[in-house]
């Protein structure tokens, strides 16, 4: 994987390698680099600042304690971290009791590393984020809403169809077509 | 549409976590069977879905999160760090360790010494404050004693016998100095009952005038009274008598009981 960072700035993969050697400064750099997007995602899902901060802390502690389970050769770091953060936040959202939360926390399930598609290398993170926002902004309000309900609220097709009072097939099409348009838009940008 | 195509269409929604149970289980079975095309599509879909995080409005965690996190990580790092001969000896020279140790000792000593000095200063301040307070009390007592002596010995003081209504009660004596005040003494005084106090009243000569309230007081544990009223109104000539009643704690504006002692002034 190519480094997206300039001379003297370590790539995420290099920092994660140092993390495996219990390098605290590498951990701090990863936190400084990615805590904002992780927090933004978690607070969007949970809509509660104190719990969001708790989850962000959990996510980064998982990273510190289980860095070995992230395989940098298989895919980029940030999508993996974001998936981990989303899963943790949705766990919190769904769980009914503190006891349940503790039990699930103990499983420490980590997401699979997503293989980077070709277009991942074409844009740096900032430009890709802008592109994602632009592309999703081109969807219809209902289509965007359905995708956001699935992603930020962890709802299934049928739950979204019920909430929006739309046919199940329509919701499925909205989500699939919306994601495909996002994919094509990112590919076109590369 | 083949079954393969149908599964392929579910991949993005599966990565998003939006499939309902039936479709999800069917796709997972298909993936577990080792379909390479769907496995590759799923990798890409996972990446694609992760990009939706950028739709979240920008937000920044508080500094507290990082501070807590770094504290935990540093504590765990200190526990888990492997202590090899190389890291201990070769990378940092002995003289540097010695310097660090000396600085550490100096720092500990300085902190201890500063705290000790601080404690001593606090103790000295507390002693000085106590001494000052005691001196002020003594000065007050001395002033009062001089005051009492003046009233008791000055020829211009008027002696007033305050007689009890009950013959079993002791007689009290008051000395009223026109400028210095009234000093009341007595012995073998019973303690007022319940939550009551003794209160002095100045009974005016003028008909229809109400008694003027003055000090409240109690006898001491030995039944002695030595009550100084150093701020009486300048009304000796207009005062017919002094009276003492039992009143509720805090005193009253008008007598609420019959006087137990009365002494004529003029």
Overview of the structural elements:
The complex is a heterodimer of chains A (190) and B (266). By secondary structure, chain A is mostly helical. Chain A folds into two domains: 1-116, Rna Polymerase Sigma Factor, Chain: A (Orthogonal Bundle), CATH 1.10.1740.10; 117-190, Winged helix-like DNA-binding domain superfamily/Winged helix DNA-binding domain (Arc Repressor Mutant, subunit A, Orthogonal Bundle), CATH 1.10.10.10. Chain A contains ten helices and no strands. Residues 1-7 and 101-107 of chain A have low confidence and may be disordered. With 266 residues, chain B is α+β, with helices and mostly antiparallel strands. Chain B folds into three domains: 1-77, Anti-sigma factor, zinc-finger domain (Arc Repressor Mutant, subunit A), CATH 1.10.10.1320; 96-153; 158-264. Chain B contains six helices and eight strands, in the order ααααααββββββββ. In chain B, strands 5-4-7-8-1-2-3-6 form an eight-stranded antiparallel β-sheet, covered by helices on one side. In chain B, a hairpin with a 3-residue loop joins β2 (172-177) and β3 (181-186). The longest helix of chain B has 60 residues, at 94-153. Residues 82-89 of chain B have low confidence and may be disordered. The chains are: A mainly alpha (190), B alpha+beta (266). At the A-B interface, α2, α3, α4, α7 and α8 of A face α1, α3 and α4 of B.
């Amino acid at each position: 994987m190519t480094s997206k960072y300039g001379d003297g700035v370590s790539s995420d993969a290099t920092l994660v390698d140092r993390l495996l050697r219990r390098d605290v400064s590498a951990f701090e750099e990863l936190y400084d680099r990615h805590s904002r997007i992780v927090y933004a995602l978690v607070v969007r899902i949970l809509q509660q600042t104190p719990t969001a901060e708790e989850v962000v802390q959990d996510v980064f502690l998982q990273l510190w304690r289980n860095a070995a389970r992230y395989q940098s050769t298989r895919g980029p770091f940030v999508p993996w971290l974001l998936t981990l953060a989303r899963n943790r936040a949705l766990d919190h959202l769904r769980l009914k009791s503190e006891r349940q939360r503790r039990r699930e926390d103990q499983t420490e399930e980590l997401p699979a590393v997503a293989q980077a598609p070709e277009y991942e290398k074409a844009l740096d993170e900032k430009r890709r984020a802008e592109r994602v926002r632009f592309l999703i902004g081109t969807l219809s309000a209902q289509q965007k809403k359905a995708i956001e309900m699935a992603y930020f609220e962890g709802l299934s097709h049928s739950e979204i169809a019920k909430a929006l009072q739309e046919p199940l097939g329509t919701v499925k099409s909205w989500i699939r077509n919306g994601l495909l348009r996002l994919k094509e838009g990112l590919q076109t940008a590369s | 549409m083949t079954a393969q195509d149908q599964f392929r269409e579910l991949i993005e929604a599966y990565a998003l976590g939006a499939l309902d149970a039936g479709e999800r289980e069917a796709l997972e079975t298909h993936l577990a069977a080792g379909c390479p095309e769907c496995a590759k599509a799923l990798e890409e879909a996972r990446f694609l879905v992760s990009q939706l995080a950028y739709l979240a409005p920008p937000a920044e965690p508080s500094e507290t999160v990082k501070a807590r996190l770094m504290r935990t990580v540093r504590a765990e790092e200190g526990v888990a760090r492997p202590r090899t001969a190389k890291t201990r000896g070769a990378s940092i020279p002995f003289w540097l360790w010695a310097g660090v140790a000396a600085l550490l000792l100096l720092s500990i000593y300085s902190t201890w010494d500063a705290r000790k000095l601080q404690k001593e200063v606090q103790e000295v301040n507390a002693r000085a404050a106590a001494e000052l307070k005691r001196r002020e009390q003594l000065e007050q007592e001395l002033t009062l004693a001089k005051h009492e002596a003046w009233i008791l010995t000055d020829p211009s003081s008027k002696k007033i016998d305050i007689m009890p209504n009950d013959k079993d009660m002791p007689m009290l004596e008051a000395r009223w100095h026109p400028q210095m005040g009234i000093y009341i003494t007595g012995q073998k005084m019973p303690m007022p009952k319940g939550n009551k106090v003794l209160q002095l009243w100045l009974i005016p000569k003028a008909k229809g005038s109400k008694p003027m309230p003055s000090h409240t007081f109690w006898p001491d544990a030995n039944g002695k009274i030595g009550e100084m009223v150093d701020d009486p109104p300048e009304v000796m000539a207009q005062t017919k008598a002094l009276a003492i009643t039992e009143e509720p704690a805090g005193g009253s504006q008008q007598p609420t009981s019959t006087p137990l002692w009365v002494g004529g002034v003029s």
